[in-house]
Design brief:
The chain is an alpha/beta fold and 335 residues long. It is built from eleven helices and eleven strands. It is 43% helix and 20% strand.
């Protein structure tokens, strides 16, 4: 079974072909980082227009590269949310037209769900597990009971973790995207140079808040002398505070639900320090922690194709009436 996966949820135009839910025949991702760098963040209008320019070309190229005929595709999976609605509608409209022309089923895929399931592109993980999806647009903890049965345990009440990193980098004028730049600074920094607050870490829920942590760092910079020598220490301390909260809350959920497996996905999951902290703390608690490879942490069509493959196997009804959405629906999903 060959499934095409399309993701245009944010600023990457991503298309992949997946065979039998395991073999990635080809995955193409066109990044818009250079387009948005001058603005220090993603400009939604620019992102959606670029998707329109690129999506036909990427689709055609992936067929040429794999020597796959369009008629050989068994299903078309596409992100229909959450994300930037203008961007989502580009991919969704393209996928609907393609599915209609090929007379193949269209499988809408929740972008967060796909990040949580991307681990299955490389590893077999036993259900149930706790999933943390952490990126520039999302910070969510899920209880994943089965492939299409999950519950949202907690989410951010303001900034996503990656968003806070981008805003700090923009404030400091050190470049974009902020996450990878701050990670590089932090590798050489002292982690306890400044003790920044750990927002909501002592509350009994699994929610996050990063806006106050961001403000705390900005206030520190405004009230103290910052040099090229100590900036790395300040940013390392900030990163440590954010990751302390992410690891603590996720492991708390794992312990509270007596689930010994955690899966971490999303762009921020590529950060080596976050991985190190999860593995260290997970080992102490007897919890196994899994990460996707960096190529599958960031937005990609392969994870969309994967969930679509499972949907086809499950016999989930296909409809061209599916709508796009910008925000993650709260509550449980059971299919």
């Amino acid at each position: 079974m060959i499934v095409l996966g399309i993701d245009t949820s944010c600023d990457d135009t991503s298309i992949a072909l997946l065979e039998d839910g395991k073999k990635v025949l080809r995955s193409l991702i066109s990044s818009q980082v250079d387009l948005h760098r001058p603005f220090g963040g993603i400009v939604p209008e620019i992102a959606s227009r670029k998707h329109v320019e690129l999506i036909d070309y990427i689709y055609e190229k992936i067929l040429i590269d794999t020597h796959i005929k369009a008629s050989d595709i068994d299903g078309v999976g596409v992100t229909n949310g959450p994300g930037l609605i203008g961007s989502i509608l580009v991919g969704l409209s393209f996928a609907k037209g393609l599915a209609l022309s090929l007379r193949k089923p269209l499988i809408p895929v929740n972008h967060i769900h796909a990040h949580a399931m991307s681990i299955f592109l490389e590893n077999e993980v036993q259900f149930p597990f706790i999933a943390l999806v952490v990126s520039g647009g999302h910070t969510i903890i899920l209880l994943v009971k089965e492939i299409f049965e999950y519950k949202i345990l907690g989410t951010t009440r303001d900034d996503a973790a990656g968003e806070a990193f981008d805003k700090i980098a923009k404030f400091l004028n050190i470049g974009y995207p902020g996450g990878s730049i701050i990670e590089e600074y932090s590798k050489k920094g002292i982690k306890d140079y400044v003790f920044f607050p750990r927002p909501m870490i002592n509350e009994e829920n699994y929610d996050f808040s990063f806006s106050g942590l961001k403000t705390s760092l900005i206030n520190y910079i405004k009230n103290n002398i910052v040099t090229n020598d100590n900036l790395k220490d300040i940013l390392s301390s900030f990163q440590e505070a954010a990751f302390d909260v992410l690891t603590f809350k996720t492991i708390k959920a794992s312990k509270d639900y007596n689930i010994k497996t955690i899966v971490v996905g999303g762009g921020v999951a590529s950060n080596l320090r976050l991985r190190e902290m999860f593995l260290e703390k997970g080992k102490k608690e007897g919890i196994r922690v899994f990460f996707s490879s960096p190529q599958f942490c960031t937005d990609n069509g392969a994870m969309i194709a994967l969930v679509a493959f499972f949907g086809l196997k499950r016999g989930i009804p296909s409809s061209l009436d599916v709508k796009g959405f910008s925000r993650m629906p709260l509550g449980e999903l059971v299919i």
